[in-house]
TrEMBL record, chains A, B:
InterPro entries: CinA, CinA-like_C, CinA_C, CinA_KH, Competence-induced_CinA, MoaB/Mog-like_dom_sf, MoaB/Mog_dom. It comes from Rhodohalobacter barkolensis. Residues 5-172 form the MoaB/Mog domain. PANTHER family: NICOTINAMIDE-NUCLEOTIDE AMIDOHYDROLASE PNCC, NMN AMIDOHYDROLASE-LIKE PROTEIN YFAY. Belongs to the CinA family. This is CinA-like protein.
Amino acid sequence: MKKAHIISIGNELLIGDTVNTNASWLGGLLTEQGFYVEQVSTIPDSYDLIFGNVKSSLVEAKVTIVTGGLGPTHDDITKKVMVDLFDTELIENNEVLDFIKSIFKRRGFEFSRSNAAQAWVPKNCDVLFNNKGTAPGMWFEEQGNILVVLPGVPTEMKFLMEERVIPKLHEKFPDREAWATQYFKTSGVPESTLSDHIGDLNEFENNGVGVAYLPGVSGVTIRISANGLDVKQAEGKLETLKNYLYDKVGAVIFGEGKNLTLEAVTGKLLSDNKLTIATAESCTGGLLSSKITDIPGSSVYMKGGIVAYANEIKEGFLKVSKKDLEKSGAVSKIVALQMAKGVAEAMNADIGVSATGIAGPDGGTPDKPVGTVWMGFWIKGDHFALKTVLSNDRLLNKERTVMIILETIRRRLLKLEELPYQLKPQTV
Amino acid sequence: MKKAHIISIGNELLIGDTVNTNASWLGGLLTEQGFYVEQVSTIPDSYDLIFGNVKSSLVEAKVTIVTGGLGPTHDDITKKVMVDLFDTELIENNEVLDFIKSIFKRRGFEFSRSNAAQAWVPKNCDVLFNNKGTAPGMWFEEQGNILVVLPGVPTEMKFLMEERVIPKLHEKFPDREAWATQYFKTSGVPESTLSDHIGDLNEFENNGVGVAYLPGVSGVTIRISANGLDVKQAEGKLETLKNYLYDKVGAVIFGEGKNLTLEAVTGKLLSDNKLTIATAESCTGGLLSSKITDIPGSSVYMKGGIVAYANEIKEGFLKVSKKDLEKSGAVSKIVALQMAKGVAEAMNADIGVSATGIAGPDGGTPDKPVGTVWMGFWIKGDHFALKTVLSNDRLLNKERTVMIILETIRRRLLKLEELPYQLKPQTV
């Protein structure tokens, strides 16, 4: 297999300011592409260390990906090292310069001299045009080995890898060993339960299929991968396992694909069924409506939402009963139910959902500990609430509540029997 | 300064299953302890690569920390490499063996042979007793340099570092240099502009003070660091630069501290001034109210919000004029202004803010390209709107809009002259 090295440049990585998520992402992508990632070196913004590490990786690995040090300030020296390493010179790239100028003009910023420098590139490289930022990526070839230099900003690095580098790698190395990977995204089931239901996979693993459980925001992702003489053969190996997985745990798989989100899948279900939705949020504070509206085209199904943080807002906007608020408290089944129905009616939506809870880290009582959440659902008259107790981590509680709500909508629309985490629907 | 190297062993790190948070944590800790972390190498569970990397780090660095490969399964080979590297043998450590047996007994597990093997350690090492797990850490000394080998499980690694390794490092290197670091968080100014305004820092850098610009969600963070004979001296060196920074760019510094957020600072300003706020969001979809409510205690100042995704919601809930919606469109100054005032009045809040724009990636027109955002502000009668054009990245547009709004509130409450990105307030 062709070896790959990753070099992450940046003092902030070494002193613990930033976690090296770039290397992890790159490692996963290169592995999928059939490369053997032999090494990740994280080094400072130091001329000597960059020079030395790049020089040796360029010899040892077929593909070396370098990230970092391409910004406009004085500690960004990666480009200078490349010029010296290849004994070349910098030339101005007009396309990049124009692009940088247009970014600044559009935003109304002053174009600074240090930004102009980002348009100068080593003469011997192929420029990888960066639509997401001011620093272009660079592709070098040396004695059959490839060196790719990218900005360290994650969104820009990922864009350049996916849109520019991967196609060039396909061109350069057309007959790599084929590697096929598939991702099955689940929600509403813990890893240990999922693994128990799936059971022993030795038969598949002995046939060269790798299986991994990856934790994630919306739930556990099952990753299966196999190699083969060509893509067809590799994918063929996965087909049997895929069928097996759907047979065992199909209900909790909301879709396939590494980057697939629960909000996209639920959104599509709403759109396919021509349903509209409105949200009433207290403890989640707007995160639910924000996730729903992260999806382009969500205006088709999303009417809007109320963030009813203060109780008077719950009363005034959602018609929650003052008496019930006083009697049962905001974090209660009755209030969750009223919020869900209230927002659906106020916004004339087919579906209303609500979240009211104790986000934490403080605010709990023996009766209602931190992490207690009631989620209300009004799905065209189907009116119920779910209760769970999460953790004392405020931000995680918000995220998890949002995901449980989205998964509940998904399962209800698909008429699946079980709800996330086997929660039981409660009515008035 | 004494050099430190970190070697992280584990296939899962290279194929992207696990992010290398251990290295980040270790880097931060070693830096605080006055070491210069020169390199992190992440390598597979491969005999040759472990041998080669440990051997060279042991020569190049005063302290090398190795994590991983100490588990009970067949791919855990780190200890074998150590035995060969030091040309020594394994001996059974009774204290560790008894401890492992007691763990298993207590949990009711069957004690396996592979677990017994974890009690065997290289003859030439100091055992670092691991109360948190079955694999002890190991401390080796070779020609004045230190090699520490720890399990990769984060809780165990951190325990061993803090409880066993740090005390031994203090003993071994009693007169290390002290290190001080400070973080200044800015918002509303691009890195190049910030760097230009701060100017030449040679004078400080020649005095041993390092400066770095770190990009982040809310804006650029300026990190300054210095070493000295003791902490007092190190901090003293930073004092002058700190004053210089406040003098040059004080207005854009919203606070100090690595993890400080703009929403926390703005929230505190609202709370200190006894002001309440309500949000009216279209394109940001709830992200603004979600960020505000991420802060514990935000219920003191946050009344709530309306996510007015559909135009009828803008009309019905925010009293936006149907005529103006039809005439100027939802993404316009007049609608942003009405939304801000409308929500403040509807929720009886001192401050109302709004965001209406084209989040993307589609939906633009020549007149209003993707990324066009109008942000409305009603701050106790002070009524104005800001306009900017961001990018075609939907999620980034939402984030950036939220940060511009929070920073605008902050600067307005502090009566600072300039608004973020030099945007000009526009009125009816």
